Structure formats: structure tokens, C-alpha cells
Fold Magnesium transporter MgtE.
Amino acid sequence: MSEVTRVYAGRLAGMVVRGPDTDVIGRVRDVIVNIRPIPQPSRVMGVVVEMVNKRRIFLPMLRIAAIEPQEITLVSGSVSLRAFKARTGEMSVFGDIFGSKVHVDDPELEQLHGKAVEVADVELERNRSRDWVIARIAGITNRPKFGRRPELHTIPWNYVHGIAPFANADEHAAAELIADFKEMRPADVATAIYDLPERQRLSVAGELDDELLADVLQELSEERQAELLETLDIERAADVLEEMDPDDAADLLGELPDDKADVLLELMDPEESAPVRRLMSFSPDTVGALMTPEPLILPPQTTVAEALAHARNPDLPSSLASMVFVVRPPTATPTGRYLGCVHLQKLLREPPSELISGILDPDLPPLYADDSQETAARYFATYNLVCGPVIDQDQHLLGAVAVDDLIDHLLPDNWRDAGIRPETSTKEG
């Protein structure tokens, strides 16, 4: 029988493992791999075998003499009975890779570019140095209904992206850092993370919950945002983007290759991706690209007391809490007809039972989505505001621009990396 040098990992599931004397050792329950950045080969480290007594042990690939259609034969019957424990830096094919989403850039499969591809199986191959490596994946894009078999695509591993290896690090040290971060501002957490060695930085970022990691990303330069996002597997990256403010998520996706951005948008919840897609449709130097689609928007029959309660929301940035925008339903952007706005100071001076429709600012003009950033800067300087409404030509509210977002875009691209006071500056006296 010819020697097997290629096999799909899924075929190994449940396969009998025998010693050279044909005694049964157990059955394969998983395959362990070490994912490396392309173009380095991603090696197959070994298999997890469940013995008759249900104990799971690890067998390195070098201990395997042959893989046959029905069974695996070992070089010797002597095996380590130490219980299997996953090591940092390694991934389980069955638990971590099967069913995960990736994006691909195989020039032979252009129809898959910009789509999320689900990993259905992984092909393992023994190379000339007799190491086993990941050679290809079998992937599907959509699962058909009514029990039909999905169309499988075979994709070389070097065209597969979005599976991030777990970083090696001291888990105890990472946990201590993360505990400290919870008492810090996101901007300070971002600075602290980038003061860490690269390996520790990636490990700590991987351990942060999605909400905190999203807050940290928003405090980094767009170049560093993209760099950190690349270290996450693509499904985790989509989850983190959902937690980001839509305008920040749109800016970050604009820094990525179009194919990857399309895949991430596809993996995001449709309700979360819809406002991001709208923002990405505007030219980057316009007000439309700067605005947030989630300001404080209320219907005209809202009372002052109710409006103040909404303004107290701790998740609402202070700049956006400074102004209430009043619209006809629907109140989700793009809204019904925009009626006007009420300043927070005005709300504080009016009776709680007063309707906000009766205290609108009649003189404040809006911004339009295609206005330039310079127009927005002049607008804020003229009217002494920290937040302003953005409407379309049909008088629908599209969102609001906050002065902090405007300043962020007017400063040099790397201003966040330099910090509040660049290192080149000096104090007088």
C-alpha cells in the first residue's frame, strides 16, 4: 500500500490508533496545529487520542509511522500517558478552526473575494522534510436550505486569512494588567498597551473583553488600529467592530484592503453594519464621514424631564449629551423630518413638564453631509458648539458631528502615537 502523504483532518476523527504490534491505543479526537504568519508553514504538531479509559493523551506527529484508510500506526507502542493539556500558541483543528470564518484571496477563486468563507475541513500534507503542515482548506460560503449539500471550494493555505494564533504570554501577568486597565481611561490603556513588548501586547489585547478592546482601538492611530485588528481572528475582529462607534469602525475599515473590509462587514450584525456602510459611502474629507449616526434623538412630544434623563446616559459622550435633536418618527437615522435641536443648558432652565418641541432653537442652521471639514470647523467656531446636526437635502437627520471627531481628523494622522505632548517639545522655565 502506498504511503499516505495527504489527508483531510476530518477523516482522522475517530480513527483507531494502533501500536506496531497492532494493539489498540485509542481513537483520534483532535488535531493540534501551530499557526504561523504566511509565508511560514503552519505545522501539525500531533493528534489528541482518547484511550479506552477515556483519558486523552497527546501523540506528536513524529511518533506516527503511517496513516492508512482505517487506522493510524505508531512507530512504537511506548507513549506518554500524561493527560493532554493545550499549550499557548497551539490551536485545535476540530475545536478552533472547523466552522470558523476566514477571508481568501486566491486568484483562481475571485468569486470568493470579499465573502466570509466557513472552514469545513483542513487538508494536512507531509512535506519533503517529513513535517506535516496545513496545505489547504475546504471552505463553503453559504449553507443551502432543504438539506442540499453545500458547494465546497478547495483553497491553498497561503491564500487563507483570518485565523489568528493564540499568543504566548504569562497568563497571570496579563490578568494583572487587565485588572489595572479597568480603572484607567481607554486612552491611557492604549498608551500602556503600546509600551509593552510586542508579544505581551498581543496577548493582553487578545484577553481584553470586546467592549474594552473596542474602546482602546478608538484611542489608537488608524495604522495601529489596523495592525492590532490583524492579530485577531476574523470573527473576533467583527465582534470588536460591532462594539466600536460606527464612525470609528468606518474609519478603521477604510484602512483595510477592500476584500477584508467586505468580509468583516458581512460578519457583523446587519443592524450594526448598516450605519457603518452608510458612513463609508461618504467621501473621507466630508462631514458625512465624520458624523456619528447615534446622537441623542427624540420625538417632539418628549418632556424636558425625559430628555434630561436621556442626556444622563453614562454611555453617551459629553459632546453628544450637550444637544438633543428633535425629529418626526422614525428616530433611527436616517430619521423622519428634522425639526430642530435643544441645547442642554436650555433644558436645565425649563420646567420638567415642558415639551421639547416648544423650546427648539429656531436660529441654528444644520450641516449637510457633503460639507467639507473646513466648513464644519467654521461652523463650530461661529456658533460656539461642541456638537452639530447633519441632515440631507430632504431634511432627514443623518447624524451629528462632535467637535472632538473633527479635531481628530484635522490633526496629523499620527498625533495619537505622539501623545498629547510630543517628545520633541520642551517645558520652559
